[in-house]
Amino acid sequence: MKISSSAAAVALLASSADAFAHRGGGAPHRVRTALSAATEERAPPRMNRPRTKAPVFDEVCETTGVTLGRFLHSHAELNPEARELTVLFDSVGTACKAISNTVKRSQLPSSETLGLQGEGNASGDDVKKLDMITNDILKRALKFTGRMGVLASEEEDEPVSLLDDGSPLSSTWAEKEVIVDETEKYVAVFDPLDGSSNVDAGIPTGTILGVYEYDEGCKMDDDCVGEECTEQERECLANTLQPGTNLVAAAYCLYSSSTFLALTLGNGLYMFTLDETIGEFVLSQADVKIPDDGKIYSFNEANFDRWDAPLRDVVTGWRAGTGANGQVFTSRYIGSMVGDVHRTLLYGGVFGYPGDTTNANGKLRLLYEGAPMSFIVEQAGGLSTTGTERVMEMVPREVHQRVPIVMGSRKLVEEVEGAYAKKD
Ligand code: AHM
Ligand code: MG
Predict the structure, then answer these.
(1) In the chain, what are the helix, strand and coil shares in percent, each to the nearest 5?
(2) 369 catalytic per annotation
(3) Which CATH number fits domain 296-423: 1.10.357.10, 3.30.420.10, 3.40.190.80, 1.20.140.10?
(4) Architecture of domain 2-285
(5) Exposure check for the chain: N or C terminus, fewer CB within 10 A?
(6) Which residue minimizes the CA distance to atom 6 of ligand 1?
(7) Which residue in 18, 68, 131, 265 is the catalytic one?
(8) Which of 72, 193, 311, 367 is catalytic?
């Protein structure tokens, strides 16, 4: 069954390394380590929204550390206006656990969830069975928070309205009790299983999610993209087509050696690792900072000859060790953006999917891949550019719009930007 507008209409702990490090030697029970650092003053990233307050955890259970639930609760206490957001991310955490289990079990013959669904999505990509299954898991998890107004997903042709009980959405759901809530506040944009072309081979995949405020007063222009723009679709589009600078939160989940959830609520990047023994995401790195420089690049180099000249020049310099930092670079490319960006955040370097002579805007989608991942990278102190523009500032014209991207360590991204500027 194809999900379409007509059918469905619609990523500390104290216990983290630092806290646990105190355990053996009669360490103090009260831990103010990396977590406290989260409140220290630092240069604000390039963003337009005011920063939220970050929690400090004075006392941490040595067994569980700081769970996602506790983190969210503390965030809500400090930022009462974001209380509803924490409800939403509690559900996102649950959905990521469910997706992680689904992806793991998919390798068992009895699961019958590998392979193609047998049709393409709105971007023309082959849809995998797991794309559909994970889309459904995330969509339901978000819907039943009662905090959602609109969803837009890689696997949905059009944004999905969750407000109108009479919309086609309700008729395709097994649960007929569609929860229509007066507290809807948010718009979620997501790719439920990014890198799914890798999934049959057991290679890491991920979920990407961005959250905007739902603007009830937002009106769509008359030149709505798509020939059959209904009034409802116009309203949905108006709420989903916001620039990344409007994001209030973004997250990715990485399904790899561990299951990771990296989350920003507008004041730094927090990484959680799933502790399968207690079924909880546990804060493993607070206020993650990407190295300012690096020597790893991550591109699909098969496209090298078709890239823009400035990017080819910069990468050629990195290969030869004649670039700005004089380092001889190495190449790492999984082909799963979440895994490639996760490594880039931890080790430094750049990840990108640039435009080329065949696909001027590259491959990645602005709304639910480019913008949320750019927000995450910027919150970690990195940068994200098209070469000539900050990705976060681009206003999408349509839901599945593609965007050329180079993101990662500040100095390296600036080197790319500098090469483009020189050419201009
Ligand atoms: P998908 O959303 O269809 O899974 O495609 C997105 C993925 C990214 O995770 C990855 O960076 C890129 O596509 C890989 O594309 P390619 O196979 O062309 O290198
Ligand atoms: Mg994707």
Answers:
(1) 35, 20, 45
(2) yes
(3) 3.40.190.80
(4) 2-Layer Sandwich (3.30)
(5) C
(6) 195
(7) 131
(8) 193
